[in-house]
Design brief:
Layout: E1 2-4, H1 7-11, E2 19-24, H2 30-42, E3 45-50, H3 60-65, H4 70-77, E4 84-86, H5 90-93, H6 113-116, H7 120-135, E5 139-143, H8 147-159, E6 165-169, H9 189-210, H10 215-228, E7 233-240, E8 254-264, E9 267-277
Length: 286
């Protein structure tokens, strides 16, 4: 496995027949490793990027406190057969400081996660565009846990004509149901118990949808669980159209992403589940 720190060295990396990139901010956990295993299925050369992108943080303190564990990350990646790790410094990615030209996430960046974190998706898409340019992959793999981010990246590739396939890997969960996240290390044992309400809410809403309930009834099933949990500050619990991240209304039919974001103590967590809305008169009475 080769560790690459500069764009010039990355450009000199010999190509495989089908290069796959997995973009991360480090502090790797089983969720990231699942992405890499998926990448190994999709190509013969896997490049992992590790870069804590300052453009996507709306608070300097959050950026400064984000865990940086490069040595531990490399130790996890080595046994997986990763071909190269691109881990640039800030000055390598942004040699002139904050870039003058950035990517706009449009309407996707103004709703839900974007509304809660203004400018976040602009920062995400700017670094994704740079990393796609620098790594030049055939395929890029992203985690389904960041549902709105996946929608935004697919729109970036579609609207700006990037020649890359976007693949997703399912959310990895701990045995208690909590979605794997680098931020989970900040949770105390009590906070972790409270955080489990996120997955319970999503699961309850998905079960309700399976009974043929309307979207309003489906969302209420999840919100009731969140409202009953003390010590949980909910930013949103909503249904997204997977095409453009717009909020679905009660007339919506078809596949929908149920998404939640909440603070548990000082830690902000997100999660989601995909289900289908197909109301029936019988089901909506349950």
């Amino acid at each position: 496995m080769r560790l690459i720190r500069t764009a010039a060295d990355l450009a000199a990396l010999p190509r495989g027949e089908r290069r796959v990139v997995v973009m991360t901010m480090g502090a790797l956990h089983e969720g990231h490793l699942a992405l890499i295993r998926r990448a190994k299925e999709l190509g013969d050369q896997v490049v992992v990027t590790i870069f804590v992108n300052p453009l996507q943080f709306d608070e300097a303190a959050d950026y400064d406190s984000y865990p940086r564990t490069l040595d531990a990350d490399l130790a996890l990646l080595e046994p997986l057969g990763v071909d190269a790790v691109f881990a640039p410094e800030d000055a390598e990615m942004y040699p002139h400081g904050e870039p003058v030209v950035t990517v706009s996430s449009g309407v996707i960046g103004r709703v839900l996660e974007g509304a809660a974190r203004p400018g976040h998706f602009d920062g995400v898409l700017t670094v994704v565009a740079k990393l796609l340019h620098l790594t030049a992959p055939d395929v890029a793999v992203f985690g389904a846990k960041d549902a709105q981010q996946v929608i935004a990246v697919k729109a970036l590739v579609r609207d700006l004509n990037f020649s890359v396939e976007i693949a997703t890997a399912s959310t990895v969960r701990d045995d208690d149901g909590l979605a794997r996240s680098s931020r989970n290390v900040f949770l105390s044992p009590d906070e972790r118990k409270r955080a489990l309400a996120l997955n319970r809410a999503l699961a309850s809403a998905a079960r309700t949808a399976e009974y043929g309930a309307t979207l309003t009834t489906t969302l209420k099933a999840g919100r009731d669980i969140l409202d009953a949990q003390d010590g949980l500050d909910v930013d949103y619990f909503a249904a997204l159209d997977p095409a453009d991240a717009s909020e679905a209304n009660d007339d919506y039919r078809g596949e929908v992403v149920l998404a939640v974001a909440a603070r548990v103590g000082a830690t902000r967590l997100i999660d989601n589940i995909t289900t289908r809305i197909a109301p029936s008169a019988e089901g909506d009475q349950r």
